[in-house]
Amino acid sequence: MSSGDHVDQHGPDARGHFGPYGGRFMPEALMDALDELSAEYDKARVDPAFTGELDRLLRDYAGRPSLLTEAPRFAEHAGGARILLKREDLNHTGSHKINNVLGQALLTKRMGKKRVIAETGAGQHGVATATACALLGLECVVYMGEVDTKRQALNVARMRLLGAEVIPVKTGSRTLKDAINEALRDWVTNVDTTHYLLGTAAGPHPFPLLVRNLHRVIGVEARQQCLDLLGRLPDVVAACVGGGSNAIGIFHGFIDDPGVRLVGLEPGGAGLDSGRHGATLTAGSPGTLHGALSYLLQDEDGQTIEAHSISAGLDYPGVGPEHSWLKDTGRAEYRPVTDAEAMAAFSLLSRTEGIIPAIESSHALAGAQQLGRELGPDAVILVNLSGRGDKDVDTAAKWFGLVTEEEAE
Amino acid sequence: MSRLARMFQECRAEGRSALVGYLPAGYPTVPGSQDLLTVMVSAGCDLVEVGVPYSDPVMDGPTIQAAAEHALRAGFRLRDLFTVVESVATAGGRAVVMTYWNPVYRYGVDAFARDLAAAGGLGVITPDLVPDEADDWLAAAERHALDRIFLVAPSSTDERIARTAGAASGFLYATSVMGVTGARDAVSHAAPELVRRARAHTDLPIGVGLGVRSREQAAEVAGFADAVIVGSAFVTAAATGEAAVRELAGELAEGVRIGADSASPVG
Description:
The structure holds 2 protein chains of 2 kinds. Chain A is of the alpha/beta class. Helices cover 43% and strands 18% of the residues of chain A. In chain A, strands 3-4-14-9-10-13 form a 6-stranded mixed beta sheet, with helices on both faces. A 4-stranded antiparallel beta sheet of chain A has the order 1-2-12-11. Mean pLDDT of chain A is 95; it is low at 1-7. In chain B, helix 10 links the parallel strand 8 (206-209) and strand 9 (227-230). Chain B has a 9-stranded parallel beta sheet. Chain B has helices spanning 3-13, 30-42, 62-73, 78-90, 101-107, 109-118, 135-143, 158-167, 190-199, 215-222, 232-240, 242-255, and strands spanning 18-24, 47-51, 95-98, 123-125, 147-149, 151-152, 172-175, 206-209, 227-230. Mean pLDDT of chain B is 94; it is low at 262-267. By secondary structure, chain B is α/β, with parallel strands linked by helices. The two termini of chain B are 16 Å apart. Chain B is 47% helix and 13% strand. Classes of the chains: A alpha/beta, B alpha/beta. Chains A and B meet through strand 2, helix 1, helix 8 and strand 11 of A and helix 3, helix 5 and strand 6 of B. Chain B: The active site is at 49 (proton acceptor), 60 (proton acceptor). Chain B: InterPro entries: Aldolase_TIM, RibuloseP-bd_barrel, Trp_synthase_alpha_AS, Trp_synthase_suA.
């Protein structure tokens, strides 16, 4: 299965609607650029020159296919169910994000644009974008909330090493949402020369479609790997959901398998009752943010409510529109996982399997523990291990008190 | 004929462009914005745009972002919008609302149109709602006799300009530069060209916004547009106080009257 030959039986429609969700709630000034991107992608996805180059980069540069690793010692803490990890953490740059950025960076070149802008939360997408731009000789500017630049200082340095300019965003909540606002302001000003390399399956059409299709390789590989290993499909596919790109990518490998439950794990922060969380699908309501109609965290007046999560990459009050549709149709289900549950799973996987996961992915691991206990030892649960946790060691050291004051000096 | 159409007809009879001034409702407070908008009307704004403070104003530069944040922190609620619009109408002014789409969607599109019309508002400018996504709004605007003012940009294709103009009423809002709101030193060269392209597709009056802050710039824009729209400069003046707002409105009102006899705008 190549990256380009997927037919969209699952929508969206021609104007980017998944049921009532999606669309383009964007300034007119960007409509021409969105049309151009849609048209270019429609051509590229059936052009062997494009799909061949993308497949080559995914294989020879990103390291695909990523492994499928069984986690038996972790599974002892998950009701004894079989736990399979899709190892997106082993991709170049350490997360699934590379799949999307390589595709969009190639599209940028096809469109004759020389400058790329991106937003980033945890820095995974920013690092991946800076990497693809270095590889393909594109100018790169990354917007990152000031709060996140502090939480993820090493990733800021990493992006700068790769030649990107990192601009700390000091407006609003100074996290991912505001980084997107600032990137959109840049885009509307420089749209002639610039491609906005959006990092998740949200935003205006065609981004939810484009980003999903570029990550669909995760699900396609994992499905075949499950069949090869077990001779059967998993009972559940679990993935974390912030904007929802890794989840939509792995879900789409199984979307036509009605026996496979698709479960998205949202950041429950300090708990839903605390009001400090990012559980958009569980606790939000439909509205427009950043270009699409989708579930979002908002108050009675439609003002966005700031999300809270220990994971910078999930700290976002919106979600991709296809997830809203999958929730409403019941094809996928979404549950919150608290900071504490995610950090416990982070620690557990590190100690039982020797794999330090991203805190984002740890939400999926905690969800898999719950599901395993519910389903018992006959169940097979596939977890998308969307990223590695090196970037989170500082957060973990603080959370668990791993470094003594003396050592910290 | 809508009240906006009548306003443009009156301005045309005087051989001049209309002056449109923007201020967010609730800035610096709800009563404060009522007073300032009333001053804008009495000092020469033919129409005021009452902005809705919103948490994620992606089309706005630093001046209007800061004003919106200020208004929200000061406790602005969406229902206050109607109070502010009503006070403009009571003072004999004309008001349209400029809002990002989510507050309207959340309030209920038809309920919003109903309550705005009841408050005496004349229409809505929708910077992040294009006609492609506006079926509900078009129906509600029709039902409650509100004008729907859509934007065109220098990047809009002729096809999109035609479609947008076809869905719009009252006037067509031409964003004169690619970029976010904010006062600029020079009027963009893209603006006259965009207005020329738009006139090929519509008889609607065309307003030009983004960047105007002086009498001279107002006069320059009035030379090719039916309305001169001023936003950030009014917000900056509002931070200083009523006198600065009155002075700016007076200066801009002179600007749209410069050369009124010789160079009346076409269309």
